[in-house]
Write a structure and sequence with these properties.
four-stranded antiparallel beta sheet; transmembrane; Sequence orphan; 2 domains; 19 strands; membrane
Length: 406
């Protein structure tokens, strides 16, 4: 199964006012249980549309384990709230997650407005001016109940045709924290890429063809700020420079078709075509963590081998060949690994951080604005190894054994 773990066409980012959960949403065929872990800094609102309570309990435990892994790596000031549905989806889909809401903030470093995931904005200290309303949840996620999942507390080894649910959940939660690009095509097949189109509400326009159409520029995510381009001659440029060029385009078009025709005939359109070329050429886009200057030592090669471009897969993942199952930063590859447990992948990677969140992924999260926990930072610098035995979590809680190497 070629896993597209972040399908933005299915999980929409919408402008909505917070709503109360409907805890009575039951029907004759499905039994929904709403289970909330409210005793920590990663809270799960869980809806399981299965009649098998035992399976629902195993799924919920896996979600909470993923939250524990994240809170072990990050210092959170405010709880992150995740709305999760375990439902019937298309057979070839594992699941997906995305920020429930983006909030536009001015970057003081370069004076550019970018979209920040709500989960990240809530961690910023001191809090930015509250001219916006938080959605009820920070991350929205769906996972497929039809998949042959292996659970951390299952007896026996993972089967060759099974997928480790904890691996998939953790991967998707990282997308919800902000490992996600704004760049996408305006038409199918993609002829160009642009950041999100900003609507009059200040929200990303996921489907700009919907009326009324009001163009207020293009806007990247905070993840995009740290991406550089590298051409065949080794010349480097910031991806944001292309966004700046695109924002020289202006129009009063009230329909998307008129906007698109004008845009294609504008001088700025060439920048959109160049970004598409970079995004479909191997080793052309690199995430450079804040304060880093060495591509070899610090850069994270992003997924640009897919041609044609795939929204949700291209750019929003690391290169699947470089960060293979033996690499410490395997987690954000776009392809899930059938027949491999998360524990076995961490062991093969010899990850000095001790979990599936590798050292370069920690640098990504830190660059976005999250504060790394002291144990994560010391793990990377002192070469300490943390062995996480997920099979014991179902008995008590997350069991972490620290083995410090000499």
């Amino acid at each position: 199964m070629d896993h597209d773990p972040m399908n933005l066409n299915k999980l929409l980012i919408v402008d909505c006012t917070p709503k109360q959960n409907n805890n009575n949403n039951n029907d004759n065929n499905n039994k929904e249980s709403f289970l909330i872990k409210d005793d920590g800094l990663f809270q799960i609102n869980f809806s399981c549309q299965l009649t098998n309570n035992e399976v629902c309990d195993k799924v919920e435990r896996a979600f909470n384990m993923a939250g524990d892994i994240i809170t072990y790596a990050l210092t959170l000031n405010t709880p992150i709230i995740v709305d999760v549905k375990f439902i019937v989806m298309e057979q070839d889909e594992l699941g997906g997650a995305a920020p429930t809401r983006y909030i536009s903030l001015l970057d003081e470093e370069d004076q550019v407005e970018r979209f920040y995931p709500q989960a990240l904005v809530k961690q910023i200290q001191p809090q930015p001016p509250t001219t916006y309303t938080y959605a009820e949840s920070d991350i929205s996620a769906e996972f497929n109940s039809l998949v042959n999942w292996h659970f951390p507390d299952d007896h026996g080894s993972i089967g060759k045709d099974q997928y480790d649910i904890l691996y998939t959940i953790l991967h998707e939660f990282i997308h919800g924290l902000g490992f996600i690009t704004s760049w996408r095509g305006l038409d199918k097949p993609e002829k160009e890429l642009t950041p999100y189109i900003v609507t009059v509400s200040g929200e990303p326009a996921i489907d700009p063809t919907e009326l009324p159409f009001n163009f207020h520029g293009f806007r990247e995510t905070i993840f995009d700020k740290f991406i550089i381009t590298v051409d065949s001659n080794g010349m480097q440029n910031r991806l944001s420079s292309f966004a700046n060029e695109l924002n020289q385009f202006n129009t009063s078009a009230s329909q998307f078709t008129d906007f698109y025709n004008q845009f294609q005939n504008s001088p700025q359109y060439d920048a959109a075509k160049k970004v598409l070329a970079y995004s479909t050429t191997k080793n052309s886009l690199i995430f450079m963590p804040k304060g880093s200057d060495s591509i070899t030592d610090d850069g994270i090669m992003l997924e640009t081998k897919i041609n044609p471009f795939q929204t949700g897969s291209s750019i929003s993942h690391v290169d699947s060949l470089i960060y293979n199952v033996g690499n410490s930063d395997f987690l954000m590859r776009r392809q899930s690994v059938a027949g491999a447990s998360l524990n076995s992948l961490v062991t093969k990677s010899h990850n000095v951080t001790g979990s599936a969140i590798g050292p370069k992924l920690l640098n990504v999260l830190s660059s976005l604005g999250y504060t790394l926990a002291n144990n994560s930072k010391s793990s990377a610098t002192k070469q300490s190894i943390v062995v996480i035995d997920f099979t014991l979590i179902s008995l008590i809680t997350l069991c972490i054994i620290l083995i410090t190497t000499i």
